[in-house]
Amino acid sequence: MRFGLFGTGHWAEQTQGAALAAHPEVELVGVWGRDAGKAAALAQRLGARPYDDPDALIADVDAVAVALPPDVQAPIAERAARAGRHLLLDKPLALSVADADRVVEAVDAAGVASVVFFTGRFDPVVDAALDEASAAGGWSSARVTLYASIFAQGGPYAGSAWRKVHGGLWDIGPHALSRLLPVLGPVVEVTSLAGAHATSHVLARHESGAVSVLMLTLDAPPTALLFEYQLHGEAGVFDLPGGSGDPVAAFGRAIDELLAQARSGRSGHPCDVRFAREVVAVLAAAQQSQEEGRTVAIR
Length: 299
Prior knowledge:
The chain has helices spanning 10-22, 36-46, 54-59, 70-82, 97-110, 124-136, 161-171, 173-184, 247-264, 273-292; strands at 2-6, 27-32, 49-51, 63-66, 86-90, 114-117, 139-147, 187-195, 199-206, 211-217, 226-233, 236-240, 296-297. By secondary structure, it is an alpha/beta fold. A seven-stranded mixed sheet has the order 12-11-7-10-9-8-13. The N and C termini lie far apart (37 Å).
């Protein structure tokens, strides 16, 4: 399958580009980015062609892989889907429910395949743990703590403008929700507070009656880093694993799953744009709760 890569940053090169270039069933046709010089340099390193027009790259491929800020990703994904191209996207899908809805509508109208890369969901260890937790059932609560520190000088994401503005809620919140929603079910209402170190403290009630607590930041003190997912219920306490830490291998599996979906013509991948839209709705409700100081229902 012919792919176009959209994006030129660290994630585009080190994860998506590396996995696409190495995949035996992929032809990486070209690279587009907002910085033409970076697009040319990355295309050369990956053995592809640089494009200065995103629509020209969409026209030349069967599928797009996108590693761009979510507000840039969403309109490109919508255009690609309307052109009949399959979508391999990054999380979060968008920064608003309206933008996410437009991508979903375009995918449904065109009948293309879609996979959104929630990294841990493409890790066999994490996948097996989620299956085990879902089979056990009876979970009444969950606690997720993701305390990251990414803005240190020299780090690959230190200069990420969208992450500085939207923080851990939108960047690592999708990872938390991608593991909680399959086990606890959809979220129906959210209360969220902003705390020290740009931390979002999110309280979510699920349709099942379970309540989850998420503590999320990208700007934790370096001495306070912590990453844990824990479920509580009739089966006891269940710690979900963090995963292998190999995003290139995980992205390779995402490619495999997009290829299989596209070739079979089946729809409804567990991490498709509809699921990603559900995640965006929870994040948007949490942001609204912080801004307005109230609980927000999700319709």
